[in-house]
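hey m, so remember when u said the C-alpha cells were messed up on ur end? i reran from scratch. heres the input so u can diff it against urs
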Amino acid sequence: MDSPSPATISAGVRDNPAILTAIDTIVEQVQSVANAITDVRPPDPGLAESHRALLDRAAATKGRDLLYPYIGAGLGNGPLVQLADGSVKWDMICGIGVHFFGHAHPEMIRAALIGALEDTHKHGNLQSGFDAFEYSERLIELASRSSRLKHAFLTTSGAMANETALKVCYQKHAPASRVIAFADCFMGRSVTMSQIGDSAGNRQGIPLSTLVDYMPFYDEVEADRVGGHTNLIDRACRQLERYINRYPGQHACFIFELVQGEGGFNVANRDFFKALMEICRDRGIAVWDDEIQSFGRTERMFAYEMYDLGDYIDVLTVGKLTQACAALYTEPYNPKPGLLSGTFTGSTSDFTTGLRVLELLDDERWYGADGVFAKHHAQFREHARAMIERHPKWFPACPAVKELVGGVGGMMRLTPFGGDKDKVSKACKACFDEGVVLFYCGHNPYHIRLLPPMPVMKDEYWTRVFECIERGLARVAESE
C-alpha cells in the first residue's frame, strides 16, 4: 500500500477533528479564567517576596535593574494584564506596540496553537514551511492595493527589517553610501541602526561608519514662526537640495517615518512629504517608508495610505503588531541573489498569529475619519484635555509643541510638566504604580505616550484609564 503524501499527512494534523476540538477547549478554558480579570488590582502582599526574587533574578541576568518592575504572570483580559506580584494594570503600551489585540485574545491563542502543531517551530530561508509565504502573500496583497510594492523579505525584528531595507537601497544605488533621515528618528538597536537613529545615547561608544544627513521633521510651531507651512516646506526642500548637491550621487535613500514613534509621535501633512519625495524621485534616491511602529495604528492600515503617498514608496518596513517583521520593496528594488538571507525568518506561530492579525485588521470599521480607531483617539484627547483643565499647574505651556495632546490614531501623546524628562519619567512610573502601564517618547520635550490595544478598547475604559493617570500625575505634582 502506498504511503499517504506528505501534504495529506500534514493536513491530517491541522484538520484533525480531535485536535481542533482540543484547541477549542484550550481557548475556552483560558477565556473562562481571563474573564475574571475586570479591573485594576493592587499587588498581593503574599506574593511580595517571590516577586522580589524574580526581579532580582531578572536584574542579575541583565546586569541592571528593570526599568519597570514588570514581570507578567501570563494572563490578562484585553487591555488588562496581570503581573507576577498579583497586581492587574491597564496595559496602554502593549510591549511598545506589539500586542495590538491585547491579552489572551482568543483568535491569537487559537492561531498560536495551530502554529505549534508543526514538526519544527522555526522557519528559515533555506528550509521553510508555507506559513511564512502565506503571511508574506497577504502582507503584499494589502500593501499593493495602493502602492507598487511587490516583494517581501521576512526578518526576526524591526531592526533587521530596517537592515534589510538599507541593504536593498545600497545595492540598487551602489556605490552611494549616504542616507538621509529625519531628526529625532529611531531605527532600532543594531550597530548600523543605532548610528542612523538620532539619539546620542543609543550610539555611545559605537564607532561611526554610516554617513547620515538629518532633515528637520515637520514642526507646527516652526511653521507659524516662518509664516506658514508653505514656507516651512520650501525651506525643507532647499535643505534637501543642499545635501544632494553637496554629495552628488552619494545618497542611497531617504528614510521617512510618516509618523515619528520614539521621536515624539510627531505628525506632518501630505504636502510636506510629497514635496520631499518628489525631489528624491527626480534625483534617483530611494523613498523608504519606516512603519515599524505606525503600521495598523493610523486612520488607514498603512500610514502612506493616510497621506495618499503609495505611488512614491520604493521600500517599506513593518513590524511590532505584525508579529513577524518584514521589508517590502518594488520590482526595481528586488535585490540580486545572495544579498538577503539568514537562518531564521521566525517561528510558525509568528506567521500564523501574524496572518490572523492581518486578517482581523482588514476590516473597514477600524479605519477612516469615522472609524473605531479615530473615535478612540478622539476620546483620548477629550479625557486628556479635561484633565488639563482640572489641573493646569501640571501642564505648563511647552513652547516646543503647539498642543499638549497629540498623535494620531493609536499613537497618543500627552505632555505634562513642560516636557521635563525627569518629571515625565517619574510620572510614567507613578502611573504604573497606580495601575496603568505607560512609557515616554520624544527628545526635549518628552511626552507620555500610549500605544493601547485599539481593537479591544471599549468607550467606558477611557474614564478608568485616566483615573489611574490622574492619580499618577498627582503623586509627581505633590512631590515637587
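this time it looks ok to me. Residues 122-362 form a domain with the Aspartate Aminotransferase; domain 2 fold (CATH 3.40.640.10). if urs says something different then somethings off w ur setup not the seq
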